[in-house]
Amino acid sequence: MAGFTVVPTDAECGPEDGLARLFALGRQAVERAGADVTAVGIGCGGPLDSAAGVLIAPLHLPGWTNIPIVDMASTEFGLRAVLDNDATAAAAGEHRFGAGRGTSNMVYLTVSTGVGGGVILDGRVFRGRTGNGGELGHVTVDWRGRPCKGCGRRGCLEAYASGTSIAERAREAGLDVETASDVAAAARSGDVVATRVWDETCEALASGVTSLANVFEPERVVIGGGVSREGEQLLGPVRQRVLAEVIGPVARSLEIVSAELGDTVGVVGAAAVAYERITRPNATDSVM
Amino acid sequence: MAGFTVVPTDAECGPEDGLARLFALGRQAVERAGADVTAVGIGCGGPLDSAAGVLIAPLHLPGWTNIPIVDMASTEFGLRAVLDNDATAAAAGEHRFGAGRGTSNMVYLTVSTGVGGGVILDGRVFRGRTGNGGELGHVTVDWRGRPCKGCGRRGCLEAYASGTSIAERAREAGLDVETASDVAAAARSGDVVATRVWDETCEALASGVTSLANVFEPERVVIGGGVSREGEQLLGPVRQRVLAEVIGPVARSLEIVSAELGDTVGVVGAAAVAYERITRPNATDSVM
User: Fold this and answer.
1) Where does the pLDDT of residue B65 fall: very low under 50, low under 70, confident under 90, or very high at 90 and above?
2) Which residues in chain B (88-127) have CB-CB distances under 8 A to chain A?
3) What are the Cα distances from residue B4, in Å, to A266, B10, B27, B38, B265?
4) How far apart are CA B224 and CA B19, in angstroms?
5) Alpha helices in chain B (DSSP H)
6) Are residues A48 and A156 in the same domain?
7) ipTM of the assembly?
8) N-term to C-term CA, chain B
9) This prediction's pTM
10) What distance in Å separates residue B126's CA from the closest CA in chain A?
11) Residues B16, B80: one domain?
12) Structural domain that includes position A68
């Protein structure tokens, strides 16, 4: 990659302003890359309509309603453009360029502010019927459990394993922490309460991963997102528990590994879905 | 269908004896059907290897280990034969001939002694990487909950929604019942304990269905198996809760309906997978 630049979204200034800044960034990237650019890939949080190329009402971009971003980007760059859910794109990125290389069936989970993910089945990106499937953070781990801020029901994986929830549960238990990373650090230094919160997090995550593995029978589960930076402190207990608990035939050759693309997964993933949908045009129109 | 005959498996008499009886039944069916028969479809509980056509060690057929049933049936009938997990086959049957007709993306759940299921994605039967995916009864509903007899971990959907669990929880709560159907009847006649057990069952089932709907974004969830004979007493509360709780875009056009094939789903399903795999040969070798 020639370079990697970040600008703040400043979503509250509205889509016109935000898109102008994003497109300026895109023009820089196209200039740097030269003649090799054949498509524009865009990843964004949902809800969105990936087939129509429209942002419907992304939760983290208040006011960005019904934005035909694919048409706008096509016009701006004179190139074909595609839009996908950012977690779907990240899954495609890790599959093509990261920790999922070489697999046909892979589950990607991002454990971050929320919990999201994507699934590769038989080498193809799974999107659900209209592109809104694959909401892996919203599988149940405890149906009478904590309210889930993301979807409003109770006991989703996200309600326990997200960075937000980790820090929140630690504060509820009396710890003076700001982030999930603070909780991880306190657990490493032997704090009993932090250890309990962290262990509970690993158990919930393992339970969600086990559900997904029993359903999809993947070769590999790739775990990324900010919370996964704690490395084996998170992955070790999760791997041990999942491999002990998934049904026999699924366990046989299941790997649970860290994502490889780090902060670049959004951009690399957007490129991966653009590649997939433009070189395999059937995949563009199809539901998966 | 020309007819429908049932013989006991008598699994304890061993595979030689059992297969002889099944094959005799098959010969009767072929005779009745005449020249139209082009393939033999076999559905069985797992673990099995559907690609190789071998029963590995089906849980409910103790001693039936490594039986090359597809080769044996091919020889016996002089026809091509295919083997699939019985819940996968049932999903294919409901999709082609039953309550899933006309859908491209469908989840089938059988709520019976255990809880199993199958998934149709983009019109094709999903089998997971080696045919052991789609274990829909083993998604979590409460990770610290009841032990699951089917898989050994805690809090699977099966550990709450199966007929076995319904009757067991009712007995634990002091009711004098034998079956899930007894519990349903007691709840209908106003028994408070039975009502509580039944409500909990519906909540657990709704939670599992919500997980699966969030993951797969199906058009329709088809619920079959013995417990589903209670009809709207089961489906009504499940439907209401799922539609209130799945993420917005998934809820838009999700239907939750009763299976249509009843006791014939095993046989019709086996025919459906034979049809699919023999008329769409790529599907035979592929993982989904």
Assistant:
1) very high
2) 104-105, 119, 121-122, 126
3) 55, 19, 13, 19, 11
4) 27
5) 15-33, 69-77, 86-97, 158-161, 163-172, 180-188, 192-216, 232-245, 248-251, 265-279, 281-285
6) no
7) 0.91
8) 28
9) 0.92
10) 9
11) yes
12) 11-84+264-285
